[in-house]
Give the backbone structure.
Amino acid sequence: MFDLLKVLITKRITVENIPDLKNLDVSIFEKDLSKVCQLEPAVKQALSRSLLVRHLDTGSCNAEEAELIALSNSIYDISRFGIEFTASPRHADVLAVTGPVTRHLKIAMERTYKATPKPKIIIAIGDGACNGSVYEKTYACLGRVDQFIPVDLYIPGNPPTPEEVIKGFLVCKMLLAKKEKKNG
Amino acid sequence: MKSETTKEINVSTWLIENLLKEYTLKYKLISQNHFEFTIDKSHLPIASELLMNDSNLNASLLTITATDNRESIDQFEIHALFSLRKVNYIITLKAYLDKSNPTYPAITSKVPCANWAEREIHDLFGIVPSGIDLDPLVLHRDWHPGKDFPLRKDFLKDKQLPISDHELEFKFPHAEGLHQIAVGPIHAGIIEPGHLRFCALGEEIHKFDVQLFYTHKGLEKMAEGKTIPECLTLAENICGMCSYSHSTAFCLAIESLADISIPPRAAFIRTICLELERLSSHMADLMAICSAGGFSFASVHAARLREVLMRGIHKLTGHRFFRGFNTIGGLQKNVSDEYFRELLLKLNLFKTDFDNLVKLILNTDSLLDRLELTGSLSKETALSLGLVGPSARGSGIDRDVRRDHPYLLYKEYKPNISVNDIGDALARTKIRISEVYESLKLIKNLIEDLPQGGILVKTKSYLPYSPSLGIVESPKGESVHWVMLDKEDKIFRYHIRSASYMNWRGVAKATMGKNIVPDGPLVNKSFNLCYACSDR
């Protein structure tokens, strides 16, 4: 399951850089999920926590939204990981940003970012948010998300499949644990 | 067959010699069934009205768009496109506008559904349709109107203007007891951004309006100067829900320009995929309707069925949203018959499950109670707003591009078009249910008759500066793609008018009629429009 960890964290964040996860052998997830018990306590604790996600559309093409909605269906059933979508950014641990930033949504995006309490994780979902995708800069399209707000994790794809997004959310749990530790 | 040809000739000669005779300066045949009449700009409203009011033609407005030809002929061009549904004709009324004073009498004064199109032209080109209220539409109020017009050729592609915070303005009455409820642009659920504003008297909705175009990315400007394959990728990325319809419409437009017809196998596969997209989109709609109506059991059921379809689509085309499958002249890759047989088995199982879902939806009183008489839209209102797709058919308007302007294989495999006169949320739900059954039937017939053979033809040369049109019945309704190429086969102007664009005003109207605030989301979901499609 964690085979994509390395791929996912393509840009600045890599699993290797997270101190508690240095010894994590990702291959143990591939065959036998019961081996989760053998994880390091720190990792296990990080994975066991809940995660509240706030979705923020900054101009996406609706495909990412469709996949995020699909996460709640009975096949992917994201609540079994303790992950829920929340209605308000004030309750959120994670801001899941989709789409390149448009001129008309820039202010709304910055306000939502400010409204999310610390420690917060920002993930860019889909090519539009990660690198601008096919959308060039125009009068109304300002480009990728990390020009405006700091992004902690990138989940590329056009759109990424629900499996990839779930994996990304699990990584978020670890990143959040790390951030909390750092802040004391 | 012979009588049909004579009839066609009659219609065109009748148009030329009678209806539009005194206004026509010049006429020409652009492609089969597509006529272009050049008229004086002052006659645009009256000629449009003549077309729309003629009961023999059953005309409806497709779109109005403009081009900036100041470099070549020192003029702007305005193109108003009408579909004559009864006789399968497309009519373009074209007029030239002077570059120093680009104004013309607004078509909206005679054809009300042109309102958004003309306001958009004013925003993006600075062309003034005189005689109507020109509130900003596509560009929000912090863009300074009257100075910069992004779709003019002298506006640089990556030029950006400063952004400032501004209050939204709605023309709502102020009186004792009236209060406003603002929703958005960032919504509570996983939905796209848009600002909805209720003006309520207690629980009852007194007025309702929407501020859209938050996800406006300027795709039409982005497309200019791109090569055809680059623009196809852009067309696929207009919207996730209708991505295959958009890419097919673009391909149809370019293929009509190059005058090629795609191989039969490719046409079959494209038609199957269009119907598959309709299935999956309708399942998402039903899911949204059930969840907005507070019936989560059926909603979860529909969500599971949608995922089954999405996986089927993934297996067939290699992408959950059909991306990278279409190409000009056919398909990127062939799909072997085995996959289609497998799909057919899957769809048989799907049908059994869907039967159960339908029983659930149509026999649960609590849900029916929410849906019945909610968001009613009469046929007259729907006609004046120019609604398209399931929303129009739910209000008794009998229109469907698959029958009126058949493309791909819809001429041979005619779908039955279901129409419901009642016009409430339940009617729109029922239309979707019957369309799912119809699509299943179509897919089954198409797969059984699927021919062998190639899937791609080479394209020859394209006609420069000639308008071409691709119309496809997307899951939400007709979507119109209008393309013009320059001499180097690059995009000169690309105009997209999606189904959601036409239907948004219907949502606003339907929400206003005798509903309470909690019905707002349900009315919205019974249309289930894409924001990305209409904002572009």
Remarks:
- Residues 317 and 327 of chain B are 13 Å apart (CA to CA).
